[in-house]
């Protein structure tokens, strides 16, 4: 299974446990997955670290929105990165852009110093950068171990052409991890078409709240998202993805 890696993005202890039971090889921990993820809480990390014995990378993103951060926000990112590493995180997930759309290489290098010998993933800030090929080389130079990308499209299936080109140009110098819209079907396609082998998925489903009394006409958050809809990782979804990886690994071994 060294040829394939399945990373599952989770924002709760329940989802983390389900992901591990399903066969995830690595977790990306965040909060607020429904808005793309933000920095998780310390107690959240500690509980998941205690419950799960696989590598955990922590997303450090202080807010929703773009990746052009103020000096205050960047200070928060570096301090949080150092803190989570000290608490036992295996790696940090982050990304920085300049106003002109180029990768902020200097800040990425500063973060790498804070991460130390842990892994560093450049997240989907890459998907809204100006030049993916230039940013690929800059990420490698900055010491990133992985780029999480959908191929600069809304889903990795839509962006599979660029994903394939990035995998070829990377030449094993950095991992290209396909994310956004990942399921068993898209994984099979990307494995066969472009040779993708590292995937990032949430496998989420909507679980109905246990609340009996409900004030349906009051909204606390994002319009269109129900107050009584809880997002959780579906264990069986992860299990099916892991099974596909095992089958593909077996086929490659026998070729």
TrEMBL record:
GO terms for cellular component: cytoplasm. GO terms for molecular function: copper ion binding. It is found in: Cytoplasm. Coiled coil: none annotated. Pfam families: CutC. InterPro entries: CutC-like, CutC-like_dom_sf. Keywords: Cytoplasm. Its main location: cytoplasm. HAMAP family: CutC. PANTHER family: COPPER HOMEOSTASIS PROTEIN CUTC, COPPER HOMEOSTASIS PROTEIN CUTC HOMOLOG. Belongs to the CutC family. This is PF03932 family protein CutC. It comes from Lacrimispora xylanisolvens.
């Amino acid at each position: 299974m060294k040829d394939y890696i399945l990373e599952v993005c989770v924002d709760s202890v329940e989802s983390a446990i389900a992901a591990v039971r399903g066969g995830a090889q690595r977790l990306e921990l965040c909060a607020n997955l429904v808005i793309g993820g933000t920095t998780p809480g310390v107690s959240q990390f500690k509980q998941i670290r205690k419950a799960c014995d696989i590598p955990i990378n922590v997303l450090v993103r202080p807010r929703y929105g773009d990746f052009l951060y103020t000096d205050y926000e960047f200070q928060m990112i570096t301090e949080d990165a150092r803190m989570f590493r000290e608490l036992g995180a295996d790696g940090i997930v982050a990304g920085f852009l300049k106003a002109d759309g180029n990768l902020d290489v200097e800040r990425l290098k500063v973060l790498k110093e804070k991460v130390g010998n842990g892994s560093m993933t450049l997240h989907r800030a890459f998907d809204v950068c100006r030049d993916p090929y230039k940013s690929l080389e800059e990420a490698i130079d900055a010491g990133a171990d992985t780029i999480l990308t959908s191929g600069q499209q809304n889903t990795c299936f839509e962006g599979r052409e660029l994903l394939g080109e990035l995998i070829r140009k990377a030449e094993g110098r950095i991992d290209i991890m396909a994310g956004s819209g990942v399921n068993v079907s898209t994984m099979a396609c990307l494995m066969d078409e472009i040779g993708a082998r590292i995937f990032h998925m949430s496998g989420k489903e909507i679980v109905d709240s246990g609340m009996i009394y409900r004030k349906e006409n009051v909204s606390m958050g994002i319009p269109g998202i129900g107050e009584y809809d809880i997002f959780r990782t579906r264990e069986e979804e992860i299990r099916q993805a892991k099974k596909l990886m095992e089958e593909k690994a077996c086929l490659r071994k026998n070729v």
